Amino acid sequence: MNYVLLTAAAERPDALARAHETADELRRRDVNAHVSELERLGEAELPDDALVVSLGGDGTFLRAARFAHRYGARILPVHLGRVGFLLNVPSDEITTAVEAALSSSESVNRLALSICVGADPATHFALNEVVLERYEAGRMVRVLTSVDGEEYLTYTADSVMVATATGSTAYNFSAGGPVVDPSLDVLILTPVAPHFTIDRSIVVSGERVVRLLVTDRPANVVIDGRLAGALTPGQEVTVTRQPEPVRVVYSSTFELGHRLRSNLREGHA
Could you say which of 90, 103, 118, 214 has the lowest number of CB atoms within 10 Å? Predict the structure, then answer.
C-alpha cells in the first residue's frame, strides 16, 4: 500500500494548506499522495488498501470516516481543531505518522451505525450518533424506544439519541450520558433535557436492534450533526451496527484517561 488521500475542509484554508504541504513532502519520499477538499470527497475513488488522512477537528474526521468506511480504507485523524477528542495525531507529526501507518497494517476497529429513517429503504452511516430532535421550537418530542422488539422507555425530551461508544464523548456527553470506552461494542440511548428527571441513559449491546418511534409530534432526524430528514407521528428510525467497523489508525495507544483529562476538562482546570 502506498496510496494516501489527505483531506481538509475548504473553510479551513490553514488545514488545506497543511494537507498540500504534507502531500508534497510525502511525494518527495516516493509516496503516492493526493489531496481532496472535504466537500468534494464524494468525487474521489480509492484503490485497495488506501490510507485516508483527515486534517481538522472531529467534524472533519466524521465526514472523512464515512468516506473511508465506504471503501474499507483505514483513516488517520490529525488534530488541527479545538477539542478533538477523537484525534491523537498532532499537526507536527503528520508525515511521521503517515509513514508509520504505511509500514504497518494495524488499526483499531470502531463500531459505526446503520440507520434507516422512516419507510426509506436507504441506510445512513453514523460514527457518533443519530438524534431525534424537536421539530418545533418550544415543544418536546415524545419517543418510544424499543430493543429487539421489546418496548423500553418512552422519553419526553428536547431530543433522544442513540450513540456509539466513540460518540459517547460528543453530544451524548453534553446531554449527561455516560462516557464509554470507545473500544466497546455498545449502543447508548440518551434523552436530552428529559421532562422527567428520573429518565436516564440506557446502554445495550451493539448486537441489538434499536428503534425510536415518534408518537405524537414530528421530529427532525440528525445524523452525526447533519440533518437527514423528518419524521411524523407513527414513523420511526431503526438503528443497527454497520456490518464492518471503521478502521482508525492512531499514532500511539488510545488512552481514555489521558483523553478525559486533556480534552473534556480543557479550560476547566
Answer: 103
Cα 264 to chain centroid, rounded:
17
Cα–Cα distances in Å, from 185 out to 74, 196, 203, 242?
19, 28, 10, 11
Q: In what order do the strands lie in the sheet with 159-164?
A: 202-205, 186-192, 159-164, 129-134, 219-223, 226-231
Residues labelled as active-site residues: 58
Q: What is the mean pLDDT of the chain?
A: 91
| Paired residues of 114 in beta bridges | 125, 240
The CATH H-level (homologous superfamily) assignment of domain 113-241 is Probable inorganic polyphosphate/atp-NAD kinase; domain 2 (2.60.200.30)
Least confident interval from 20-29, 66-75, 115-124, 244-253: 244-253
Give 181-201 pLDDT, tens digit per residue. 999 999 999 999 998 878 899
CATH pick for 3-110+245-264 out of 1.10.10.10, 3.40.50.10330, 3.40.50.970, 3.30.70.1230: 3.40.50.10330
